[in-house]
Every structure is written in C-alpha cells, then in structure tokens.
Amino acid sequence: MNELALLLAATLNAGTVLALAGLGLLINERSGIINLGAEGMMLVAAIAGFATAVSTGSDVLAFAAGAGAGALLAGIFGVLVIWLNTNQYATGLALSLFGSGFSAFVGIGFVQERLGERAKFAVPYLSDIPFIGTALFHQHPLVYGAMLLAAALAWFLYRSRAGLVLRAVGESPESAHALGYPVRRIRLAAVMAGGALCGLAGAYLSVIYTPLWVEGMVAGRGWIALALTTFATWRPARVLLGAYLFGGVTMLQFQLQGEGVQIPSQWLSMLPYLATIVVLVLISRNPTWIRVNMPASLGKPFTPGS
C-alpha cells in the first residue's frame, strides 16, 4: 500500500512538468499560434534555472530565470511568425534545435554542479493522513500551483471577457481585427505567456525534479506536451489529467525496474513515448472530433488588411 502511495506521489511530481508546459502550449494554440519549439525553450530554461539556483541558492529566482528565458525565446519566435510571417512549423523546429545546442554549450560548466539539500514540503495535518497524506500532501508547492493554474485557465478561457477575446483571435483573427482588437499583440502576449510556462516547467525539471543539469535532460517532454494539447482537445482540465497519465506511465517504468520485472530497460524507457503514439493514433481515428475542438486559425498566418 505504501508503494502505491509513493507511486502516486511520484506521478504527480513527474506530471507537473508536462502540465505546466502543456498549459503554456494550450495558451499559444488558443490564440492560433502553434509553437514546436517547446523542447528547446524548456532546455534553455532548465539550464537558466539551474545556473541561477547554483549561483544564488534561491529556488524562487531560479523559477523566475527559467520563466524569463522561456518568455524571451517565445517572444523572438512570436516576432518572427506574427510580424514577419515566417512559417510557424519551421520556425518552431529551428527554435527547438537552437535551444538544444545553446543549452548544451552554456551548460558545459554546470555538468558537475550539485544543488544543496532540497527542502521537504508537507501540508500540515493533511500530510499525516495514512496513504492519502503520503500520496498527495508531501509535494512541492508548484505541484499544487499547476492544479490551480489549470482551474484558473479554464475560468479565464470560458468565463472572462479577455479569455473570450483570446479564443476569438484563435478562431477568426479577421473578425477580431474588424472589431478593433489588436490581434498581433494579443497573439504575442499569448505566445510569451505560454513560453514563460514552458520555461517554468524546464526550471522545475532541473531544480526540483532531478535536481541537476544534464545535456538533453528534457528528453522529449516538450514533444509530449505538444501532443498532450491535442490529446486534451485544448481543454485545461484534460491537459492536467493527461499530464498525470503520462507522468504515471513514466514512473511506472522505474517501478517495474525496481521490482526486477524481466523486461529490457530499453522497452520500459520507451513506455511514455509509446503511450503518446497510441493516444494520438486513437484520437486521429475521429478527425471530425479534432476539427470541432481545434482553434480554426491554428497555424495560419494573419496580416491586417490582407
């Protein structure tokens, strides 16, 4: 029973990285912009956050550095695709490749660095409850922050005027422009907000989840987060649920290895990516369902007056 509680706790921890990145990409795509550079942004943010934590000893500053790095890269991406009308897919892939190489170069001096003892967190009283306390209430505050963020984003998109405007820009930028809304600036703000969340996910990975710096440590999580937005049909609550699903699959491989299951470790390491492919294959069997939920202008450039 205790092993199950620990597995659930590890699932929440692992899923938080995907949840933060997935929610950020959902904001991007709700505005009509698709950013394939999540992997690169998360890598740059991971080394920015880790280097800041090593230098200052402050996790808060590390998270701020990661979010800032993600927002900066996303801002550059946004200017290229929104104002210069470069291809969103090609620009995103270039950002991902740049982030991978740049983070590896900058991180050379931090490979051997180690952070100090990580603080232990527990919710008073609730953490003492058998099983539930172990599974749910010994988490880093950012784990609960991701849950609150999903709820806040759902309210923002479906209950607030600003969220309605954002969705309108993603559905029909021409109509939003005709009503007087600054479509390009709204899209840039959404792209940078999404980049900041991807950066926060990268910093959480290197400062809390690991905590260390290794070249390429994001290990495909950015691509899984991209798939997660489609899997969740662009709904915040479903992104959160999907993130924990993939987080559980990730931790299951370690659980099986620890119990000595006679399966090659390479197969176990493939589990999260196989799960991603299976989910995408299943949902792609109903393309009408995807089209109904997908923002109508996703991936399409917009030029005022065209």
TrEMBL record:
UniProt entry tagged with the keyword NADP: no
Q: What is its main location?
A: membrane
Gene Ontology terms, MF aspect: transmembrane transporter activity
**One GO CC term, this protein:** plasma membrane
Where can this protein be found?
Cell membrane
Keyword terms, alphabetized:
Cell membrane, Membrane, Transmembrane, Transmembrane helix
Q: Its membrane topology, per UniProt?
A: Multi-pass membrane protein
Instruction: Kindly list the residue ranges recorded as spanning the membrane.
Output: 6-26, 33-54, 60-84, 91-111, 141-158, 188-207, 213-232, 239-255, 267-284
Q: Which domain of life is it from?
A: Bacteria
Q: Which Pfam families match?
A: BPD_transp_2
Q: What is this protein called?
A: ABC transporter permease
